[in-house]
Amino acid sequence: MPVNAGYDYFAAQKKYQEAKTLDEKIRALEELIRVSPGHKGAENVLAQLKTKLSKLKSQRVSAKKKSGGRVTTVPKTGAAQVCIVGFANSGKSELLKALTGIGEPSPTPYSTKSPRVGMMLYEDVQIQIVEIPSSMQPEFLSIAHNSELVVFLYDAAKPEDVERLMETAEREDLKNVLWVANVISAKKAVGFAVNASTGENVDELKRAVWHRLRLVRIYTKVAGKPAETRPMTLPKGCTVRDVARDVHKDFLKNFKFARVWGSAKFPGAQVGLDHIVKDKDTIEIHVS
Q1: 155 has which bridge partners?
Q2: pLDDT tens sequence across 92-146
Q3: Contacting residues for 2 by C-beta, under 8 A, at least 6 apart
Q4: For residues 46 and 117, is the Cβ–Cβ distance under 8 A?
Q5: Is the N end or the C end of the chain the one with fewer CB atoms within 10 Å?
Q6: In this predicted model, what pLDDT tens digit does every residue of 167-177 receive, in sequence order?
């Protein structure tokens, strides 16, 4: 965060965090750079933002070249978007159904012609799951570029596929990935394993996905009333400042203090804007 950043910076930062597509992220990042403080104390942050913008633009050019200008997008819903990527008959459709209840797996290779989408419920949070067709055409992989996590699924009977998938991850510059072996055969799996057809370890995979997303659930409440039952989700390491800004811009502008149940020293302890919130905290914001 730049030193002495103003409201415009935080508004642009929020817009960038909520961007759904590569183009939206680029536009939001350009705005963030434009409103960033120009003093010396913010030089490093500004340089990091410019580097990130350059990488995003390179990804856009690369995706358009590979796809002949075609880019497929899936509008994001829920707390995050997670893509399942793998070769034909690796069990992607089975895993989508096991995680979300959506879709009917087919024994015919390449039967999935376009991305398929379902919603995975992890405790009280909805996470969007997108199955990428086995053809891995660039216009479909563009979805993976915009997602928060990519699950690379391979048949445990074909561990050699891991190397090919790693080449894909490196070529596409996909950073946040989770490697999952689908135990279709009796051979010992390498790494995290599930059996998509029986559902074995699927609940464990849901937990692994949640932890890799590095999000926290925050329950807001009004004084004298019960906390909201549906949480808001924010990046791990966020503060009361981020919560107040996400609820409403006026909450940050008129902030007095907050009471926190969960990560505070005692239930309902009074904290300031810089208090780091934890998963499942309940926060009551008081304004002037």
Answers
A1: 182
A2: 999 999 999 987 766 665 566 789 999 999 999 999 999 999 888 888 888 998 8
A3: 9, 36, 37, 41, 42, 45, 46
A4: no
A5: C
A6: 888 888 887 89
Please indicate whether the domains covering 81-213 and 215-287 agree at the CATH topology level.
Answer: no
| Orientation angle between helical segments 92-100 and 202-213, nearest 10 degrees | 80
Query: Which CATH number, 3.40.50.300, 3.40.50.2300, 3.30.70.20, 3.10.20.30, labels domain 215-287?
Result: 3.10.20.30
Beta bridge partners of 200: 195
Instruction: Report residue 248 as tokens.
Output: 């409403």
Q: Residue 212 region, left (φ>0) first, then alpha (ψ -120 to 50), else beta?
A: alpha
Q: Which long-range contacts (CB under 8 A, 24 or more apart) does 28-35 make?
A: 29/53, 29/56, 35/6, 35/8, 35/9
What superfamily would CATH give domain 81-213? Answer: P-loop containing nucleotide triphosphate hydrolases (3.40.50.300)
